[in-house]
Amino acid sequence: MRGQGGRQLSESGASGSVRLLGAADIRRLAAEAGVRPTKQKGQNFVIDANTVRRIVDVSGVGPDDAVVEIGPGLGSLTLALLDRSRHVTAVEIDEVLAGRLPATIAEFAPGAADRFDLVLADAMHVRELPGPEPTALVANLPYNVSVPVLLHFLEQFPSLRSVLVMVQAEVAHRLAAGPGSRTYGIPSVKAAWYADVRLAGNIGRNVFWPAPNVDSALVSLVRREPPVGDRRTVFAVVDAAFAQRRKTLRAALSGYAGSGEAAERALVAAGIDPRTRGEQLTVEQFAAIADALGARDL
Q: pLDDT of 56-69, one tens digit each?
């Protein structure tokens, strides 16, 4: 196989051998860098190589993919991605971890440095990336910022065709929930705007260091054509609809529409019963409501 520029690739996608990190490697690298994982930063490092292999397998990335990884930490997943894809760009907010990562790649993936870029930044502020346009996002996302970061990257990088993220299990179920589900809400609708979303497996607590107090799960997103409409307007309607979840859409949207009567007119025009609640609607139905309400400055 050949990657970009005619570089010869192995069947795994890497030019040269890649050795994955084990638990002893992780602890050694952390000690050398003076890193102690903290809950405040949402740091839980994957210490099991088989779990890393499984994540990359489920992601489906191959030698034609340029992957962006958010929060590479000590590099467990980064190395596995380098072994399968033609390029990896890692976004890391922690200066110490970012400073250590190139040396880890040099030690465990010799010859892969030319297929790797590192961005020291808050992922929520990233609007461009070095290297080839990313086609896939694969990441172990910090629990406290997982949904905003995911939605931000889907918006900023339309070249992303597939996403596989490991998040808190509760968040995973919210993202993948469908209309009528108890867990269906704002994250579900907004993720569905960009992609077909599904649960892709559970991850045990014992593969992390330190072990988290919550369960984790994988979520797969495959990009699709969004509904017709202005995304910002649709998202504003979604926010309004779920701000008062127990209320009917007529009541919940009255503030946004200007009055209950205006909200009811728009709902009827969109083919929605005004007595319906937000958790019963698809993203396409929210787009129809936004269209009926008319675009407005946000």
A: 999 999 999 999 99
Phi and psi at 42, nearest 5°, equal 65, 35
**CA-to-CA separations, 114 to 74, 90, 107, 118, 194, in angstroms, rounded:** 19, 13, 14, 11, 31
pLDDT of residue 274: 97
Give the tens place of pLDDT for each residue, 140-168: 998 889 999 999 999 999 999 999 999 99
CB 185 within 8 A of CB 279: yes
Distance CA 69, CA 84 (A): 13
Distance CA 289, CA 270 (A): 5
- Tell me if 187 sits within 8 A of 145, measured CB to CB: no
* The model's pTM: 0.90
Considering only CA atoms, which of 51, 129, 259 is closest in space to residue 137?
129
- The confidence band for 294, taking pLDDT boundaries of 50, 70 and 90, is confident
**Which residue intervals of 109-230 are DSSP H helices?**
146-156, 169-176, 186-194
Residues whose CB falls within 8 Å of the CB of residue 18, separated by 6 or more in sequence, listed in order:
12, 79, 80, 82, 83, 108, 109, 112
Give residue 144's pLDDT: 82
How far is Cα 137 from Cα 88, in angstroms, rounded to an integer?
Answer: 10
277: left (phi over 0), alpha (psi -120 to 50) or beta: beta
Torsional sign, CA 156, 157, 162, 163: negative
CB 89 within 8 A of CB 130: yes
Which tokens in the block code for residue 131? 């290297």
Instruction: Give the pLDDT confidence of 224-267 residue by residue, as tens digits.
Output: 999 999 999 999 999 999 998 889 999 999 999 999 999 999 99
**In 73-210, which residue ranges form alpha helices assigned H by DSSP?**
76-84, 95-108, 146-156, 169-176, 186-194
| Residues ≥6 apart with Cβ < 8 Å to 58 | 164, 200, 201, 218, 220
